[in-house]
Amino acid sequence: MANSNDKRFPEGFLWGGAIAANQAEGAWNEDGKGPDISNVVTHGFTKPADEDIIEGKYYPSHEAIDFYHRYKEDIALFGEMGFNCFRTSIAWSRIFPNGDDAEPNEKGLQFYDDLFDEMLKYGMKPVVTISHYETPLHLFKKYGGWRNRKLIEFFTRYCETIFKRYKDKVKYWMTFNEINNMHTIPYAAGAIKFEEGENILQPIYQASHHMFVASSLAVKLCHQIIPDAKIGCMLSLSAVYPNTCHPDDVFGAYELRRRSLFYSDVHLRGYYPSYIKRIWEERDVHVHMEQGDEEIIRLYPADYLGFSYYRSTTYKAGMPILGHTGGIVGLENPYLKSTAWGWQIDPKGLRYVCNELYDRYQKPLFIVENGLGADDKVEEDGSIIDDYRIDYLNSHLREVREAIKDGVDIIGYTWWGPIDIVSAGTAEMKKRYGFIYVDKDNEGNGTLKRAKKKSFYWYKKIIETNGEIL
Ligand code: BGP
């Protein structure tokens, strides 16, 4: 920003939206795509998934919002809002249907060529998540997911294939979506298959190690194949506060936060932090590392930190920190309002997290998920007056602007779900994030017709003025 009362964001700031293949594309088994772990999920990733697809059962990801066939219409709508970037994931099993295939699936590669061409046609830089809760189901069933070191080889083959194929089109990459969710939703984040009665932290940290090595190998390959690209790590980093000023709550919140920051510490600093040793000892975790692993992690740290921010939660001494699944359940913060899904709305928390992360890493940040899920109402005349979403957008972007003024280097902002898509946590359609409404309900009924909400026109103005209107 030129001077302190300049309200515009920096020149070249990336404005856009973010989705994930499994929550939008549908066409779950079309053109050679193999099933991935999202295709056996019925009620979101916080509940157990089926081992196999059960004939006749409804799986939200099978059709999702049919982005696979409708992406040209949707990208045109994003272009109308003025996006200069757009984040989505490549579905690993479109490229390698089983994950361990020797050769890629050309029809899958061609789809993403066409998709990136469409984005570039509208001036949108593709921002690609390499693995967004979409591990090929076969890798879960045959290998037990990321707890098996073989996945490093399969992931590296996948990365080399897509880097070579899309090197002239994609200059922003990130490896694993919300890798710190290995502790809360290990099936989604690491496709981990657990054994009866085992200490679950053992496979969680062993799988995490394999993913750290794989991510560093991806950084090495990306820099070799696409020298002008940036490849980041990606974490879920909504804010965590102590429930009271009691020292036990304060230190407990600090420890809880560090369970997530452990993942960005390794990805961005390039070594295992000293505090992890005590955690592993106390929880009887013995991570096996092969010769050269720590060297790879040290030599190839991520270029930037991508993260999702939705809310803040509070921590009270005694609440579980590790080894639980199903998301971090905080206590009610009396100073904040909640969404219909109980997520506490905290714009200032975003400024706090941007400062916290930039102070810790001094590497560029990319806010690749921020948004409000709400059960929008369609009026008689077809309009959708989502002022609550406009308020959420304005209040969070104003705090992003404050963070930039605080000296934080922020690459860009992609609103999560610029079009209504399937919720990851609950698999619902009615938890709508979009500036664009999609006619589909939780049971899969609807025409899939798209409609612009009031927020569509507002985000367009924000981008047009590079934030000055905020
Ligand atoms: C994050 C995921 C996204 C998205 C988001 C919103 O954890 O990276 O995939 O789903 O959460 O959560 P939900 O869809 O459950 O509302």
Automatic annotation (TrEMBL):
One of its GO terms (molecular function) is beta-glucosidase activity. PROSITE patterns: GLYCOSYL_HYDROL_F1_1 (PS00572), GLYCOSYL_HYDROL_F1_2 (PS00653). One of its GO terms (cellular component) is cytosol. SUPFAM superfamilies: (Trans)glycosidases. Transmembrane segments: none annotated. InterPro entries: GH (IPR017853), GH_1_N_CS (IPR033132), Glyco_hydro_1 (IPR001360), Glyco_hydro_1_AS (IPR018120). The active site is at E369. It comes from the Bacteria. The keyword Iron does not apply. Keywords: Glycosidase, Hydrolase. GO terms for biological process: carbohydrate catabolic process. Belongs to the glycosyl hydrolase 1 family. PANTHER family: 6-PHOSPHO-BETA-GLUCOSIDASE ASCB-RELATED (PTHR10353:SF122), GLYCOSYL HYDROLASE (PTHR10353). This is 6-phospho-beta-glucosidase. It comes from Fonticella tunisiensis.
